[in-house]
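ok trying this again, last paste got cut off
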Amino acid sequence: MKIDAEKIKQLRKATGAGFLDCKNALEENNGDIDKAAEFLRKKGIANAVKKMSREANQGIIEPYIHPGAQLGVMVEVNCETDFVARTADFKELAHEIAMHIAIAAPKYVKREDVPEDILNKEREIYAEQLKNSGKPENVIEKIIEGKINKFYKEICLLEQEYARDNSMTIHDLIKSFIAKLGENITVRRFARFKIGEE
């Protein structure tokens, strides 16, 4: 059945779960918001959002070397306990994130990490492109903000579409593992090395 965006929005607001989880829950429950919310709670995704505010000081550093040894990544993925850090599921998530970084080449973990001067430079470029468009100032502002959001999706790890499944972002992937493992999980930092690149 076709689920309208308004229902997805309502369910997201009620549960804090991701867009795709809400869409799937509504499809599973014939568009019934209350049943879908209950479905999400049972699945644990609604709780995952609450866990995201908890401290995550344990974890692992996951290395990934791309075949041919010309490209490598190290990523620090954190969780709340040493017990979870040692599980196969947590290691699988860290490996997936490292592999994604190798493929998608993000520059920052999250949008808050992007330096202000880089954002200002982007805004200047977009403003210059739209200068003679004849559009009103407020419309130009909205277009620039839209372009900045697109820019974040290109350079911030958490906002990038997951390389193996572009129906979800890396943030969604991490949230699904928070629901599965019952602990907050964060990516603290990463480094990507490619032969011949600074």
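PB: full thing came through this time. The chain has nine helices and five strands.
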